[in-house]
Design goal:
The complex is a heterodimer of chains A (about 400) and B (about 280). Chain A is α/β, with parallel strands linked by helices and about 400 residues long. Chain A has ten helices and 22 strands. Helix content of chain A is about 25%, strand content about 25%. In chain A, strands 11-15-10-5-8-9-16 form a seven-stranded parallel beta sheet, with helices on both faces. The mean pLDDT of chain A is about 90. The relative contact order of chain B is 0.18. In chain B, strand 6, helix 2 and strand 7 form a beta-alpha-beta unit. Chain B has a single domain, classed as HUPs (Rossmann fold, 3-Layer(aba) Sandwich). The chains are: A alpha/beta (about 400), B alpha/beta (about 280). At the A-B interface, helix 5, helix 6, strand 11, strand 13 and strand 14 of A face helix 3, helix 4, strand 9, strand 10 and strand 11 of B.
Chain lengths: ~400, ~280
Amino acid sequence: MEFIKFDAQKCTLCGKCIEKCPFGALDMDGSGIVVNEKCRMCGLCVRQCPEKAICFEQKAKAFNKEEWRDFLIYVEQERGDIHPVVYELIGEARKMAAKVAYKVNCVIVGGPGTAENAQKLLTYGADKVYVYEDEGFEGFRADCYADAVADCIAAIKPSSVLIGATSLGRSLAPRLATRFHTGLTADCTTLDIKSNTDMVQIRPAFGGNIMAQIAITKSRPQFATVRYRVMDKAAKVENPIGEVVICDVNEKMTQSGIEILESKVIEKQKSLEEEDILVVAGRGVRNEKDVEMCRRLAEALGGQLAFTRPMVENGIGDQAHQIGLSGRTVRPKLIITCGVSGAIQFTSCMKGAECIVAINNDPNAQIFGVAHYCIVDDLYQVVPYLTELVKNRKED
Amino acid sequence: MSACCLRRKEVQNMKIIVCMKQVPAGTKVDIDPETGAMKRLSGATRTNPYDLFALETALQIREKLGGTVTVLTMGPVQAEEMVKDAFTMGADEGIILSDKKFAGADVLATSYALSQGVTVAGGADLIICGRQTTDGDTAQVGPAIAEHLHIPHAAWVSGIVDVTEDAISVRQDLASVTQVSKMQYPCLITVDKDMCVPRLPSYILKKATKEKQVRILTFNDMPDQDLSRYGLIGSPTAVERMFAPPEVQKQVYLEGSAEEKADALFEILTGKKII
């Protein structure tokens, strides 16, 4: 395994790398600087070398599949808690792990409180959770987070590394895959594993017009980022047997070329166009009080309430939340229309939605022409009942 | 390859490299049945729309601080058209990495070739990429280039907060937080769409740059002559097959009492992980 490369032409044998190496992994012999087995790929020598004579990457062919085992999941933290995509990654990894008798390990990097969060993963069936906790890891910076995760990968040699395809994960994953000179499949929507431990990775390309099945057959680890809300969340296990492993963090590991000047939680209300879930109140919703019934459904779903034009003209809805030619055009993941007749001025501005549900007691309503799921019934019965179903699930 | 190849701050003129790509204009895709690699030559092409925001960002920084803007791309020589378009917007130089040996490259091999291209171009203080391309959609090449060059990067940049001769501060949208990050040069950013309005091509510039040459680099110009790092051979990922996405769902009428219908809908929505 060739992790660290020295450029003999640039190296002046100054010995600074030997002095700075926190693991005592570098020595000097007759042929120059040599790396021994203690090297943990922290990358410190690469940064410290005044001549920039060191770089680290392994050769594509220098690998033995047998040496790389198990799954490693990168655990993203969001506002001090674990990002929900992590539980989905654990669930998917456990399914695949069962087929090839692999373990599912996790690595988590962050500031104070990280070790505490790591405990939560055990109940979802994680075998080992490697923790890199340090004040210096407060706030995401791709370079030093990559150093910490690379340290873990080099130490435990996973066969596959799964990372959530979030903004953060998609910034981190390419650095790691590049460092290990291996393959990365971005934004997977389906994963499986062959008996030879190669993952079957499926992802959309060309804006979703084509699906590509991708394999990484000649290098390890296999990196994949996985979309949030595509996989099933892991089930809790009765008697967790996993353990939390606290890893050493040295000062240098937290060094970063990125300085965080400010970090703000986004509080702003999403605009209608940005919303993933919309509930629309149409003329079938009789008055303001009944509009509240629809609003409760929207809130339970974590989305927003929108209106048709007649509702805005009647003064029940506001213009910022009007869908239609004289209002907004939306493409949410889910839109539930309640008592909307479905005039073309309305449907032309929402028919791009991924999933359209129409609730209307008039079976001839035009809205049923564009809906994927049609409920011909009284919305006053369906909506409150559905709201309760959604609420109860959230409390589970 | 290391950060030594990159220009440092003692160099007076700020040098910016913008990585761009020519992508198919339509959504029709041809695939080489033998290799599983996409054929890029067929059909009309356009500049990856996300890259225009990267170019505009670079031009605005040049207007403030001076220096040069170089467009770097990899692809067939037809990409010259895109680079010429970039000249009409104000780019100073253009480089195309074009060689059969580069073909069929995935994220790793593409980013490696581009990082080699950066070195051949004499390095850069700041490298700017678009957030993703419209064909590959990976959004991974930018950060991978930064890793090859051992420089810090900030992805999903939604605004430039401050830019000086030594450092750049950018606003990043990271889902639930916005973060302002400051980096010294050399560094790389990937910029989001709509962070600026790309300027229109200028007729005056078009006339002025008519004779301007686009530099074509081949494998032989690369500092690293290890063939196994480039193109299809240098790509650890292989496309096993391409297929059409599952058909769009048909219309379903839910049956039963109001409550049964609501139950059925709830099952469907949770099953599809929409809620």
